[in-house]
Write a structure and sequence with these properties.
- This protein is mainly α.
- The protein has 9 helices and 6 strands.
- A hairpin with a 4-residue loop joins β2 and β3.
- The protein starts with 5 loop residues before the first strand and ends in a 23-residue tail after the last helix.
């Protein structure tokens, strides 16, 4: 299968769980095999209106999880990692019943999924940009605390300036004076998405969990920032 260019910020299987069952049953779809016509009620806060939307193209952004390559190409490997996790968690949720017991690997997958859901959404990238702007001086010092740290970083990235002490000093001075603009790239945010998720998943595994089912005739709401 080809890698999708339009990538879901909220997994499609997750949105399917909020499907309008009345319309779904009227269309006589198989419960899990065909969700192509699944529709959900969406409250658009910016436009101030509520409407029904199909989940296929809901909450999608082109190449949102694809790495930007130096030659201008896109590496979809992060999307593949997310898709594999979603596939496992989707099956866990389908099989989950009141009183059932989860295997350890299933608990790990659910913890990882919940953690990733915190950092994969667009609000996290907005937060990251604001965090960098507010803590720029501290971040510069943490990233390059000394001339030697800068020299090693330049070497790792193949910059010839690493072997010129005067050049290293000049770059170090410019970094900490603010002469170089600090930007957070999409690749950097993707790296942090996975690293932060691993840390939060470990914390979740130390907690007691409770699963809740909506009463018959009731339902839950979700959002584009569900965690």
């Amino acid at each position: 299968m080809s890698d999708p260019k339009n990538q879901h910020l909220l997994p499609r299987f997750y949105l399917n769980l909020f499907c309008d069952e009345k319309i779904y049953q009227q269309e006589n779809h198989d419960e899990y095999k065909n969700r192509s016509r699944c529709r959900v009620w969406v409250h658009d806060k910016q436009q101030g209106r509520i409407r029904e939307r199909g989940v296929n193209n809901l909450s999608t952004v082109r190449h949102y999880y694809s790495l930007d390559e130096p030659d201008g190409g896109r590496d979809p490997s992060p999307e593949r990692v997310l898709a594999r996790l979603e596939g496992r968690v989707s099956q866990i949720m389908k099989d989950l019943r009141y009183g059932s017991r989860l295997r350890r690997d299933e608990v790990v997958d659910l913890a990882t999924f919940m953690a990733v859901m915190k950092f994969r959404v667009s609000s996290y990238r907005t937060f990251s940009a604001g965090h960098v702007a507010q803590n720029e001086a501290r971040i510069r010092m943490t990233a390059f605390p000394s001339l030697e740290a800068l020299r090693q970083d330049l070497r790792r990235h193949g910059h010839p300036e690493a072997e010129d002490p005067e050049a290293v000093e000049r770059v170090f001075r410019d970094i900490h004076s603010g002469a170089y603009e600090m930007t957070v790239t999409k690749n950097h945010m993707l790296l942090h998405m996975f690293s932060h998720s691993q840390k939060i998943a470990k914390l979740l595994l130390q907690q007691n969990w409770t699963f809740a089912w909506a009463l018959k005739g009731g339902s839950f709401a979700t959002s584009d920032d569900p965690v």
